C-alpha cells in the first residue's frame, strides 16, 4: 500500500458489515462496549440477528446496560440467547389496558370493606379521629 492509501476495511473496522446496524444503535444510545468477539461469537451474533432482529437486540442491550455496567459485548451474547424470535411481519401488538390507571380496580367507598387491609385502614382512621378529638 502506498502512502495515503486507505487501509482495508478489515483493518480499520473489526465489526463485520452484518453487525454494523446493531453496533451503531447500541453506540448511539451511549452504551460503549468492546466488540472484540471471536469469529465463533460473530457467527452466533449473526444467527441471533437473523432470529430476533437488530431492534430487539439493541433495545435489550440498552436495558441491560442501564442496570449494570457492561464493558464487553460478550455480556450481551449470553443475554440475547434467550430472546424470542422477532414477530412475523404484520403482527399486531397486544393492546395495552385502556388509559392511565386502567389496571387499578376502583373501590366503592359506600360498600362494606372486607379484608385485613380494610380492617387496618378502619383502625388507623379511628385512631386518628381519637387523636383529633383530644384537646
Written description of the protein model:
There is one protein chain. With about 140 residues, this protein is an all-alpha fold. It has a domain of about 70 residues. The chain has six helices and no strands. It is elongated, with a radius of gyration of 27 Å. The chain starts with 8 loop residues before the first helix and ends with a helix.
Brief summary:
By secondary structure, this protein is mainly alpha-helical. The chain has a domain at about 15-80.
The fraction of residues in strands falls at: under 5%
Mean pLDDT: 83
* Helical stretch tally: 6
Structural class: mainly alpha
Extract low-pLDDT stretches.
1-10
Distance between the termini: 95 Å
The main β sheet shows up as: none
Specify the helix fraction band.
40-55%
Order of helices and strands: HHHHHH
What is the count of β-strands?
0
Shape: elongated
User: What is the CA-atom radius of gyration, in angstroms?
Assistant: 27 Å
Amino acid at each position: 500500500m502506498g502512502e495515503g492509501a486507505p487501509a482495508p476495511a478489515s483493518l480499520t473496522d473489526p465489526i463485520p458489515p452484518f453487525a454494523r446496524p446493531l453496533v451503531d444503535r447500541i453506540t448511539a444510545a451511549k452504551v460503549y462496549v468492546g466488540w472484540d468477539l471471536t469469529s465463533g461469537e460473530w457467527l452466533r451474533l449473526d444467527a441471533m440477528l437473523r432470529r430476533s432482529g437488530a431492534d430487539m437486540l439493541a433495545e435489550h442491550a440498552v436495558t441491560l446496560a442501564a442496570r449494570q455496567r457492561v464493558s464487553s459485548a460478550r455480556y450481551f451474547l449470553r443475554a440475547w440467547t434467550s430472546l424470542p424470535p422477532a414477530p412475523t411481519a404484520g403482527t399486531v401488538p397486544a393492546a395495552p389496558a385502556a388509559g392511565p390507571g386502567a389496571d387499578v380496580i376502583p373501590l366503592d367507598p359506600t360498600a362494606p370493606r372486607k379484608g385485613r387491609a380494610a380492617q387496618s385502614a378502619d383502625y388507623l382512621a379511628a385512631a386518628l379521629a381519637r387523636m383529633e378529638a383530644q384537646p
